[in-house]
Sequence to fold (79 residues):
Amino acid sequence: NLQAEKETKSGTTKELMATLEYIQSLHGECDWLMQNYDARKQARAGEMDALTNAKAVLNGADFSLVQRGSRRSIGFLAA
Fold:
């Protein structure tokens, strides 16, 4: 009976360690999301602008004479 309890404890300890590792990985992902929020927000805004312009072009707008700003690469999006 003591041996069975030791095996149960060992299994439970392994499961606990795996759970703690998973929680730590979630913490790392959350930190990354928080640190890169502004860059990701700016990238999404640029994508929305591009989609809006593309939709306007498909609906017949002519952007050929519009001056566009310089292109900047954004941190993790740079090639």
Summary: The CA atoms of residues 23 and 58 lie 46 Å apart. DSSP finds two helices and no strands in the chain. The first helix runs from residue 2 to 35.
